[in-house]
Amino acid sequence: MQQKLQNSKFELIEMHPKNTQSVIVSVGMNCVVFDPWGHADDWIEKLDKRGLKLQAIYATHGHPDHIACAPKLAAHYGVPWFLHGGDFRLVGSGNGLLEYFNLPPINVNDIHPTLLKIKKTEILPNLLMDVIETPGHTPGGVAYNFPNEKLMIIGDTLFQDSIGRYDLPGGNEKMLMQSIKNLYNLNLSDDTEIVHGHGMATNIKYLKENNPYFHN
What we know:
Radius of gyration: 16 Å
Order of helices and strands: EEEEHEHHEHEEEEEHEEH
CATH class: Alpha Beta
Largest sheet: 7 strands, mixed
Number of domains: 1
Distance between the termini: 28 Å
Number of helices: 6
Number of strands: 13
CATH superfamily: Ribonuclease Z/Hydroxyacylglutathione hydrolase-like
Helix content: 10-25%
Mean pLDDT: 95
CATH topology: Metallo-beta-lactamase, Chain A
Strand content: 25-35%
Strand order of the largest sheet: 1-2-3-4-5-6-7
Low-confidence stretches: none
């Protein structure tokens, strides 16, 4: 996925080792990163080679595959990385997954996350983002909706044809189902693109027609 909508650009990034879908959002040469997976040095090389100026990092939730590079990138560029307070306790708790992928563990003494505020935010010049709470996969899961660009970064709450796990620490099936119902009830247009935490991007129309969990 690579879109240029108005003055903004959304790019789906698959960093090595292939697993999590990360996103770079840029306006001009300023950018923010969502769910940075992989090696921090690879991100630094990519951003610096393109001359992009990182302004902030956002995570959809606190599992290690969605925050793997956040502390080191935040420290390197001197920017905040945002996480819902409900997931603060997850930071550093799932390093076994990173070790499985031969990635360095997250040190809980590294740069700490900044509390994510649940509100409409101008994350880059003239680029507005709504933060939507989606607990269930984790206590502090969120989706990031860009209404003017018709695009939502949804993390692991919902996949193309299924839903995120709720059997991990902090997961809650009832809350996850309610979060999915709430997302459905936003009544987003069918052509709104959905970036999932893993797997191909879809859109609202696809989810309505193919995902049995996406309904009121």
